Amino acid sequence: MINLLNNCEPSIKIDGLSHWFGKGSMRRQVLDSISMQINPGEVVLLTGPSGCGKTTLLTLIGALRKVEEGSLFVFGSQLRGSRRKTRQKLRRQIGMIFQGHNLLRCLTAEQNVQMGSDLIKGISYCDRRDQAREWLLAVGLEDQMSKLPHDLSGGQKQRVAIARALASRPKLLLADEPTAALDSVTGREIVDLLKRLALEQSCSVLMVTHDPRILDVADRLLKMEDGRLLLPIG
Amino acid sequence: MKSDFFQKRRIPLAWLLLTRQPLRLLVAIAGICFAGILMFMQLGFRDGLFDASVTVHKLFDTDLVLMSPRSMSSISMSGFPRRRLIQTMAHQNVVGITPVNWNFLLWRNPDTLSTRSILALGFEPGDPLLKDPNFSSKAQALKNRGRVLFDELSRDEFGPIPDWYRNGRVVETEVAGKRIRVAGLVSLGPSFGADGNLITSRETFMQLLPSNPPGSIEIGLVRLREGSDPDLVADSLNRSLPADVKVLTHQAFIDFEKNYWRTSTSIGFIFTLGAVMGFVVGCVIVYQILYSDVSDHLPEYATLMAMGYQLKTLLGVVAREGIILSIMGYVPAYLAAQVLYALVRGSTKLPVAMDPQRAFLVFILILVMCMGSAVAAMRRLVDADPAEIF
Ligand SMILES: Nc1ncnc2c1ncn2[C@@H]1O[C@H](COP(=O)(O)OP(=O)(O)OP(=O)(O)O)[C@@H](O)[C@H]1O
Ligand SMILES: [Mg+2]
User: Fold this and answer.
1) Fewer CB near the terminus (10 Å): N or C of chain A?
2) DSSP class per residue in A104-139
3) What whole-number distance in Å separates Cα of residue A120 and Cα of residue A100?
4) Closest CA to A18 of A84, A65, A50
5) Average pLDDT, chain A
6) Cα–Cα distances in Å, from A222 out to A29, A34, A90, A191?
7) Chain A residues whose beta carbon lies within 8 Å of the beta carbon of residue B306
8) What digits encode the pLDDT tens for the residues B210-254?
9) pLDDT of residue A113
10) Which residue from A86, A94, A85, A58 is spatially nearest to A168, judged by alpha carbons?
11) Nearest one of B295, B321, B316 to B390, comparing CA atoms
């Protein structure tokens, strides 16, 4: 907690992180001694060919996977060998936008976003609902609030997922191709929104993208290939 | 208080998860309901049989009962000297006694002429016997020889006696090879040991069963002074009387008979086993349904975990699903069991009925079944990383 107050403390600090999938002879390395750090309020874009390990890296940072080798600090907590409780608490401070939306099928768009704002303690039900509505308004879905995910288009689902991730007021946003299913105008708006949030709440953003049109929002660009982080050129 | 509610209020996730697929919910409810009915029926039969074993026992107008220590149950009653019953009159709290003969005799169905074993009770028509206040006037008819009162609730195999009697016919038939006439109807009910009952005078009883020693009776009813403690009197009589007789309170007499059927026969075991089977089958069905339901929602639970929801919260959601399912499965099971009990009562004349204790027990069993299966199905979420699931 003390670490959080210290502005100089990086949000993410990775050192020699490696990861493998599979067992025995099927064991294959997907991440190879990755080292980097991201500071509060920084917007970092991560690009690389399909299958190079971007999602794997994101899920490791998001405390959704156990760290096998190397050290990984998020907000000053070591994730390697961490307890389940630590990881669960950490996840509350991280907003995750998944590659496959992962919306709850039984909830309307508004309720899905509210599952995000419900994580904030000490606010009444009505306030949480109003916040959910504001977030949906911000992503331009004010007239789709009571639709189930089933009845939304791919891009609309993606925007609900973005609203949900932002609704819990995270300190770190991990976004896996958030603009993949959006047209260039909406994609631009969403990315600008993410950037504004980052500035307002000193929230760091790590975004995986293939979209060359949005590369300019980044403070920094990271490139990955075959599980390795390429050194920034120039 | 109010603001606290709004602070804590959440989206009713359990309800929304369950009702997203109405057809699946319906199948789940049907499965739980089926398991509930199975348990209701098995437990109902078991309790009904034990209750049925004492239908006649319960009706006696008595505080204490004397019987031979050699009597094991209503279907194997031994005699003891009638003198013993008269000796109890010496106790200051005893106000009345009724000697009763108790045996099984062969009754000939006057319609089909086939014979069947019937429980015959013999007593002095002037003595009180049953709690039913109308009984003593009916008993007057037994003062003539060769007359019996027939139990109108006896099984139909004894012949259409109640119908014939009510239509004013003279109903005569053979009991133990001797001619008798039905002089009235009583309502006792078949018990587990006896398909039908008749009541007659001791004089007629002796005629029907001449081998019975005249001074011997099978049970003796003892009525006590108002306000005396039956347990204390039974104790003191047991101490003063010889060992060829034992004194039980009315309740102990009832329990003695139930206990025989429970412990000395396999009936209790069979139906308890049936209920256990119902529970196990129910568990399997409910587990299958809930497991597939939870598996279907596992990616969504994993998403919630990834967002930072505690495992505790998610288990709470699944537990609430279990509670909702139990209630929705229990209510129709309860109603169906009521209907089935009525059908069983109609066709077997066994006193099978809903009792609150059993209703509660079955609800608890269903709840355990649902919650257990739900939590077991959630185990995968406990040890898996969220990223492994979606
Ligand atoms: N659960 C898993 N088990 C085994 N191998 C996996 C698993 N998840 C991913 N992989 C493999 O690890 C490698 C990296 O996967 P990852 O999902 O991180 O790629 P990515 O960079 O996100 O690709 P894309 O841009 O297509 O989303 C891939 O070769 C993939 O096949
Ligand atoms: Mg990916």
Assistant:
1) C
2) -TTS-HHHHHHHHHTTSTT--HHHHHHHHHHHHHHT
3) 24
4) A65
5) 87
6) 20, 11, 24, 17
7) 62, 64, 91, 96, 98, 102
8) 988 888 999 999 999 998 999 999 999 999 999 999 999 999 999
9) 94
10) A94
11) B295
Q: For a substitution probing ligand 1, which of A52, A60, A226 has the most ligand atoms within 8 Å of its CB? A: A52
Whole-Å CA distances, B362 to B38, B289, B293: 10, 19, 23
Q: Which two tokens stand for residue B273?
A: 């086993």
User: How does strand B178-186 pair with strand B115-123?
Assistant: unpaired
Contact between residue B334 and residue B290 where contact means Cβ atoms under 8 Å apart:
no
Say whether residue B304 is in contact with chain A using an 8 A CB cutoff.
yes
Q: Show the DSSP H helices in chain B as ranges.
A: 2-8, 13-19, 22-52, 55-59, 82-87, 135-139, 161-166, 202-208, 230-240, 250-263, 267-307, 311-348, 356-383, 386-389
CA angle B115, B117, B118 (to 5 degrees): 115
Q: What predicted TM-score, i.e. pTM, was given to this entire model?
A: 0.76
Token digits for B249?
């309170």
Q: Which atom of ligand 1 is nearest to the CA of A59?
A: 18
Q: What b/e string do you get for B136-165 counting C-beta neighbours within 10 Å, with b at 16 or more?
A: eebbebbeeebbbbbbbbbeeebbebbebb
Pull the structure tokens for residue B328: 């929705």
User: Length of chain B in residues, anyone?
Assistant: 390
Number of Cβ within 10 Å of residue A135's Cβ equals 24
Q: Tens digit of pLDDT for each residue in B185-198?
A: 999 988 878 889 99
Domain boundaries, chain B: 11-52+266-389, 69-244
* Contact in structure between A223 and A230 (CB atoms under 8 Å): yes
Q: Are B281 and A70 in contact (CB under 8 A)?
A: no
Pairing of strands B178-186, B147-151: parallel
